[in-house]
Specification:
globular; single chain; alpha/beta; Rossmann fold
Length: 124
């Protein structure tokens, strides 16, 4: 059986590489993107189980990318976990408004990833 795919967009090496390692330890295949501009097309093509986006990206507008994903019928169903450092609280609000399924602090994502993924993938 194929491992589920997580599409991850991050810019900062340390939390990004730690996140990738944790996802792989949890049994996910991980595809990374450095540029938010590619996320819509990649999500349609690769059909990930979930998407994780670093909100502190300087390579594009993460909230616009989230809105684009949620507006596209082919990707609207994909749960999105958005994260950023503790100093970016306004980004958390903007990500929620854009349609992110779950928004968390960077430290919480690394410390509580299994629990966050369970909450992210919970189907009502």
């Amino acid at each position: 059986m194929t491992k589920p795919l997580a599409l991850v967009v991050y810019e900062n090496l340390l939390p990004g590489s730690q996140l990738i390692n944790r996802l792989q330890d949890l049994g996910y295949r991980v595809q990374t993107l450095a540029c938010l501009g590619d996320i819509g097309g990649q999500a349609v093509q690769e059909k990930p189980l979930l998407i994780i986006i670093d909100l502190s990206s300087s390579a594009g507008d993460p909230c616009a990318a989230i809105r684009e994903l949620k507006a596209n019928a082919a990707t609207a169903h994909i749960p999105i976990l958005a994260f950023s450092g503790p100093k970016h609280v306004s980004l958390h609000t903007a990500a929620h408004e854009a349609g992110a399924t779950l928004v968390a602090n960077e430290a919480a994502v690394l410390a509580q990833l299994p629990e966050l993924l369970e909450q992210l993938l919970h189907v009502d």
